[in-house]
């Protein structure tokens, strides 16, 4: 129950949240390939060598399967009963089948003509089966394999699913594992469990996994509690966090603080003037997060051209994940108005960011965090030994490193320190959990 003067927490899910709305972040799924996009009307999306628009998915439930029709329109796919095994004509073996390229009567020009007429992929596959002279002589297993291969090539079946930690983790690990330090989704699940991530906690996270770990923590906490993200460089990278599509209420408990100011905060020499030395122009950070509309447009055009040029050479190549917009306050140059208005807006945002940094510094200075998560490309030992001072006694911490040598070194150091405390008759406040 909320006390007087307290801000209300995040509201429970709305009954319509299971339906896709304009502006939502969704994940497109085709076979075992995923792609995160933002739903926008009349926005051209390229996925697995197919281009289409997302207008028709608005209003449908998550998990609905669509088929790409002529003109790039998505239509809900109707379920069709598969023929029973009794009606199939199959051979006993494939020993007499010769792959000479002459068994298919339909040529590429015929197939192209069928596509131009708007014939669905399902009907094209059926015609390929009927015009194959060797299909009925193949074994049942070979027939199923042939049908599956042709469906993958000619049927554009796409399922729209709601973003989640598991789906986004699988997506990044399959396509761009280097961006998440080769972290598997089961490893991320262990980190969330061992770190005791739950609603109402005050957590500290230092990660260089494109914001995937941060997004997973925010999803599990459900908008209750606070998270302080420590970042290296000019600003935090949250490209994966944006793919979750969290409501604005979740962002109220998210703070950020530069990693190069941690030592001064521990030494007591930190002051508000130090933040003025931070880079004023956050364009580079916005670009890395995918917030620049100009880059998004150029990437989309490049993606389309590459897909068309490589369709015949790389049929197995997966689609690059689309850059999604993250900052809802960002406006295109044509909408900014005059240069003076743009400068004022930029100064306002910088002042707001500076205020959030001071709030994060105040939270860190309390040194009573409920947990710490470290998952970065840097050596974990100096990071952990520095950041543990901000964690309250008897609170868990989790350290992830893709190199076992660095993890082993840290674990042996913590074990040695624990042994010294035990020998001296003192109680060790922190319990290490190294993944």
Automatic annotation (TrEMBL):
Pfam families: Gcd10p. Residues 1-21, 69-102, 276-354 are annotated as: Disordered. It is found in: Nucleus. GO terms for cellular component: nucleus; tRNA (m1A) methyltransferase complex. Residues 79-102, 292-317, 328-354 have a biased composition (Basic and acidic residues). One of its GO terms (biological process) is tRNA methylation. Keywords: Nucleus, tRNA processing. Its main location: nucleus. Belongs to the TRM6/GCD10 family. This is tRNA (adenine(58)-N(1))-methyltransferase non-catalytic subunit TRM6. The lineage of its organism: Eukaryota, Metazoa, Chordata, Craniata, Vertebrata.
């Amino acid at each position: 129950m909320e006390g007087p003067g307290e801000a209300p927490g995040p509201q429970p899910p709305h009954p319509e949240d299971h339906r896709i709305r304009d502006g939502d972040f969704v994940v497109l799924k085709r076979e075992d390939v995923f792609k995160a996009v933002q739903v926008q009307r009349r926005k051209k999306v390229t996925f697995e060598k197919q281009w289409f628009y997302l207008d028709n998915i608005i209003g449908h439930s998550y998990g609905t399967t669509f088929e790409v029709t002529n003109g790039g329109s998505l239509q809900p796919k109707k379920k069709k009963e598969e023929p029973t095994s009794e009606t199939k004509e199959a051979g006993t073996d494939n020993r007499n089948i010769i792959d000479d390229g002459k068994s298919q009567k339909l040529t590429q020009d015929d197939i192209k003509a069928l596509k131009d007429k708007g014939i669905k992929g399902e009907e094209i596959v059926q015609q390929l089966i009927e015009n194959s002279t060797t299909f009925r002589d193949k074994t049942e297993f070979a027939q199923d394999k042939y049908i599956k291969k042709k469906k993958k090539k000619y049927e554009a079946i796409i399922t729209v699913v709601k973003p989640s930690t598991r789906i986004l983790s699988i997506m990044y690990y399959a396509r761009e594992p280097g961006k998440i330090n080769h972290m598997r989704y089961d490893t991320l699940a262990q980190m969330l469990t061992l770190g005791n991530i739950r609603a109402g906690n005050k957590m500290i996270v230092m990660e260089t996994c494109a914001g995937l770990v941060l997004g997973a923590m925010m999803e599990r906490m459900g908008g209750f509690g606070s998270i302080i993200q420590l970042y290296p460089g000019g600003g935090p990278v949250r490209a994966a966090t944006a793919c979750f599509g969290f409501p604005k209420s979740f962002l109220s408990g998210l703070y950020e603080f530069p990693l190069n100011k941690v030592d001064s905060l521990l030494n007591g020499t930190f002051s508000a003037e130090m933040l003025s030395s931070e880079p004023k122009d956050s364009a580079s950070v916005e670009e890395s997060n995918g917030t620049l509309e100009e880059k998004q447009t150029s990437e989309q055009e490049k993606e389309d051209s590459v897909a068309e040029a490589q369709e015949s050479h790389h049929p197995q190549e997966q689609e690059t994940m689309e850059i999604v917009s993250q900052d809802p306050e960002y406006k295109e140059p044509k909408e900014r108005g005059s240069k003076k208005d743009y400068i004022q807006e930029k100064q306002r945002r910088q002042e707001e960011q500076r205020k959030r940094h001071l709030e994060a510094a105040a939270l860190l200075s309390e040194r009573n965090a409920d947990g710490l998560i470290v998952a970065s490309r840097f050596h974990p030992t100096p990071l952990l030994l520095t950041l543990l001072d901000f964690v309250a006694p008897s609170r868990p911490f989790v350290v992830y490193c893709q190199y076992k040598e660095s993890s082993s070194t840290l674990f042996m150091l913590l074990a040695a320190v624990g042994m010294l405390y035990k020998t001296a008759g003192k109680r060790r406040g922190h319990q290490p959990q190294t993944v």
